[in-house]
Amino acid sequence: MNRINTIANELLASRNEQGFWDGELSSSALGVAVSVIAFHFYDAEKLQDEIKNGIHWLIINQNRDGGFGDSPESLSNISTSLLSYSALHVTRNRFPGSDQTILSLAAYLQTAGIDVKSKDIARHVLDFYQKDYTFSVPILTTCALCGIPENNPFRPIPQLPFELALMPRNFYRLLNLNVVSYAIPALVAVGMAIFRHKQSGWLMKAIRKQSVPKAMALLEKIMPQSGGFLEAIPLTAFVSLSLIQSGYRDHEVVTKGVDFLKRTQRTDGSWPIDIDLSNWVTTLVVKSFRNEIDEYLDDESKAKITDHLLAIQNKSVHPFNGSPAGGWGWTHYSGSVPDCDDTPGAILALLNLNPKPSEQVIQSVIAGCDWLLKLQNNDGGFPTFSRGWGKLPFDQSCADLTGHAVVAIATTIEKLGKEVASTKYKKYKSSIQKAIRYLKEEQKADGTWLPLWFGNQFHPKQHNPVYGTARVTAYLTDTLNCEWVPASLKVLLKEMTGKAQTYLISAQNSDDSWGGDTGLSGTIEETALAVSALANKPEAKPKCELGLQWLEQQEIPLKTAPIGLYFASLWYGEKLYPQVMYLEALMRLKENVIREN
User: Which of 135, 138, 165, 408 has its CB surrounded by the most CB atoms within 10 Å?
Assistant: First the structure.
């Protein structure tokens, strides 16, 4: 168990000056490409150094097959490759050194069945994303603005109905927007760009023309102080580019968006997908210390993190999506929006940091639980951002977030006891019961659960049943350890986790690692999560020990895998994921040893 101290001390050393963790997201070729294009159309002369550095990063990070993946560790894909081609193509006169990169990239796209001079580009992209226009239409619009393909590039691009964004927010989930709830800025800005460049019937043209000023006012209203929509580089770049090419170059939304992109460019010329996941990684680290948190964080350190989490809790109706007070987003920056993975994470972190919570912590935790209850869907599951949206996958209830919400509410009841009023206790208990029924329905015949915001790029469908199953199993195992949980519910939880653990045992590779599913190459993240989920199962002890041996053989610094999914199927890696997931596995195994003795 010496590695516990090694990894824990590495994590402690990576805190920022304020005492919490920022993490480090992988650089994003897609983020680089769209930002460079936005800079080019905004002011190619003034921003030539930023553009040059971005182009240089693309050139040196091209994959061997000629394409580009979402991160340097990602497999090449059509979406990122098309956008990278657009960036290199539109800036080629200024940077002739990119000629060979362009040729290799065009050859990759050709092998993927895409001729950059053909109108069939739109069909390929739309076929891949199907009814979800969240990502496909911004990609095609960006290509079209760069003159790809050359002849009438806007004709096959679907018109995003930006005028519908002016309806009252409560109606959004009833409308056929074809974009996810968190992509309203793209719906508006990209929709306006298409409208400006594409012919339409006289009636819709009149309606949309009158909608433009109100749409711009909406963007102003929901734009955060930082200038970055959702603190996301691709989304902000798509919006800025679309507005620049719609005649709004000097509008405040554009100038603030471009300033945000300038600030977030890294010294190597790249951009991450988001400024950071500071709240997410901070709560992951705090939770990974488990019951031994006092061994690694002194009172002053715990107080700093506690104060930080209390300060960044959303305390009013959020202007971006109308989310009520009480939730937490993924970062402390202003563009973050409350969601159903970071809110349970913050609740659990606050309870772990404060075994004898102050009144302020108690009220914060209860407000977080109340926020979760308002989010819960009729099917018993929990979505990410908005209740009732269910037309597109990234708006639907999902297993891993539901499991996280269950353990957060269950732990709140366990640790706060009588501080939870009797009326709230009944609501919390009812919410947990509905959520567990949902999880039972969602569990596949082989015992697996699928996550929403995580995947495996080598899986045929890019799913990650190991991640989803391990996460939900660990959450339900912690719920089982709550004394208040009635015996009948514990029977059901043991049945569900038992099936899940049977799958995880069967999914271990011959080299003792775990990948995203049976037969997929192992990663530190997936192996650590599987060990965490199996740590309490006596029959799985030999499997866990073998998995631990595999982990011990991995070189330090630990290698990060692109298992995260962002925006709409955009891969990323996070530097802290291997460390924090490894530490959690070690702590859970140690707990089990102590329990057995």
Answer: 138
